[in-house]
């Protein structure tokens, strides 16, 4: 037992509390016949919560954590503190990269031994904790060896190292009964086309993903394989730019039935989309798996990974999740970090508690909008003309036949209002 969170009791639902508490998130509250905890499936991100030092592009570490260090004693203390925080927040899940939980060794074998020791510790902790593993993943972007990518690297030895790292992390995720395994290609892209063979790199990336899927089945891992799209930063272009790009990639390699997406709000914004756009498209394509919930600072223009605090944005996101039938193996992972001036242990708890409240408010608003049905009725009315046999016949006809019908007369289309402002007003009744 550490004393990092000394004096901070487990949080409870108390709308009138003066200190740390949940004001909107009651895990046992039923919405659409399901407990809020089971709808939202919150997860704590190990990397931002326990490994991030508080730096930014212009300055280094501001956090002073007792577990910061490059030895196994520090890694064990970090795990101790992590599970204490999971208990304070009463979260059902957490997520990790291998790099977050163990120190880098002098060789692959030493790094793996360090990693396996912490996985042993996680397994022991999880025996007495309610917190389970939402997903594991490999960090194939921080170390300098990955400066030119992992699976897309021009050096085959880096490809091999990456494959071995993914295998190790997938084995550990399977061992801990993780519900998903995520692949995020942080440097799977290029800086300049002048030295890049696009076709070769995409073939290598497709082969790596195919091997991951094959290995999943070989070891009997029942969880979902997920890709997390991201358009840029740090690379100029990444091959998993957005949901549409990922789906095309999956189809190219015959993996669209095997792999889904883990969509992050901040990445959606960097791709020039809204979060709900990416979620809606993934829902329509049948590949919506899980979400990373955060927000960007819209004035900064980069991935600031802030905790969510915008109820309307969150409500529209969960509207798409609920329309998809809710999460199956996925959940709401807070891929978010404190601001570098938020130094105190209490800040870490307050950030998560506030985000959980925001998500609860958003999901309840989304459920109310679905129950009201106003948005769905308006959408159905807008496309009602397509419900007639004559309109449906257009989709099985040919250009010449359609043109002949138009030329014959009787068709004189007139514009109809899209009623956007009225629909925005409708949403505002709930948020």
TrEMBL record:
Subcellular location: Cytoplasm
Organism the protein comes from: Thalassococcus profundi
NCBIfam families on file: PRK05474.1, xylose_isom_A
Main enzyme class: isomerase
Cofactor, free-text remark: Binds 2 magnesium ions per subunit.
Required cofactor(s): Mg(2+)
Self-association state and partner proteins as the record states: Homotetramer.
Official protein name in the record: Xylose isomerase
Annotated PROSITE patterns: XYLOSE_ISOMERASE
Catalytic activity field: alpha-D-xylose = alpha-D-xylulofuranose
A GO term, aspect molecular function: xylose isomerase activity
Gene name per UniProt: xylA
Binding positions (Mg(2+) 2): 264, 267, 303, 305
Taxonomic lineage from the root: Bacteria, Pseudomonadati, Pseudomonadota, Alphaproteobacteria, Rhodobacterales
Family the entry assigns: Belongs to the xylose isomerase family.
Keywords associated with the record: Carbohydrate metabolism, Cytoplasm, Isomerase, Magnesium, Metal-binding, Xylose metabolism
Enzyme Commission (EC) number: 5.3.1.5
Residues given in the record as Mg(2+) 1 binding sites: 228, 264, 292, 335
GO annotation terms (biological process): D-xylose metabolic process
Positions of the catalytic residues: 97, 100
GO CC annotations on file: cytoplasm
């Amino acid at each position: 037992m550490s004393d990092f969170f000394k004096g901070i009791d487990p949080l409870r639902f108390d709308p009138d509390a003066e200190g740390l508490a949940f004001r909107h998130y009651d895990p046992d509250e039923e919405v659409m016949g399901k407990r809020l905890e089971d709808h939202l499936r919150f997860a704590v991100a190990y990397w931002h919560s326990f490994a991030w030092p508080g730096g930014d592009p212009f300055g280094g570490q501001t956090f002073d954590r007792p577990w910061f260090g490059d030895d196994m004693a520090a890694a064990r203390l970090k795990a101790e503190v992590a599970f204490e925080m999971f208990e304070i927040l009463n979260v059902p899940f957490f997520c990790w990269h291998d790099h977050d939980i163990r120190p880098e060794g002098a060789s692959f074998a030493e790094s793996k031994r360090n990693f396996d020791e912490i996985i042993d510790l996680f397994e022991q902790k999880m025996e007495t904790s309610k917190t389970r593993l939402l997903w594991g993943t490999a960090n194939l972007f921080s170390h300098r060896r990955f400066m030119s990518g992992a699976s897309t690297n021009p050096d085959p030895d880096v490809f091999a190292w990456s494959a071995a790292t993914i295998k190790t992390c997938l084995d550990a995720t399977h061992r801990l009964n993780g519900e998903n395994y995520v692949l995020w290609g942080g440097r799977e892209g290029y800086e300049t086309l002048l030295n890049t063979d696009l076709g070769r790199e995409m073939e290598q990336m497709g082969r790596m993903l195919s091997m991951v899927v094959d290995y999943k089945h070989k070891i009997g891992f029942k969880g979902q394989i997920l890709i997390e799209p991201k358009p840029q930063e740090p690379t100029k272009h990444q091959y998993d730019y957005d949901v549409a790009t990922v789906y095309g990639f999956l189809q190219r390699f015959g993996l669209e039935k095997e792999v889904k997406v883990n969509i992050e709000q901040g990445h959606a914004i960097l791709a020039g989309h809204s979060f709900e756009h990416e979620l809606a498209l993934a829902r329509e394509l049948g590949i919506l798996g899980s979400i990373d919930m955060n927000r960007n600072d819209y004035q900064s223009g980069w991935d600031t990974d802030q905790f969510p605090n915008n109820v309307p944005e969150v409500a529209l996101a969960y509207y798409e999740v609920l329309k998809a039938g809710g999460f199956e193996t996925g959940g709401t992972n807070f891929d978010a970090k404190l601001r570098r001036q938020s130094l105190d242990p209490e800040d870490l708890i307050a950030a998560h508690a506030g985000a959980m409240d925001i998500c609860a408010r958003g999901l309840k608003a989304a459920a109310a909008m679905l129950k009201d049905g106003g948005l769905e009725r308006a959408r159905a009315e807008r496309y009602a003309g397509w419900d007639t046999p004559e309109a449906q016949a257009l989709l099985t006809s040919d250009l010449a036949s359609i043109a002949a019908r138009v030329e014959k007369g009787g068709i004189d289309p007139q514009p109809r209002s899209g009623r956007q402002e009225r629909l925005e007003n409708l949403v505002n009744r709930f948020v």
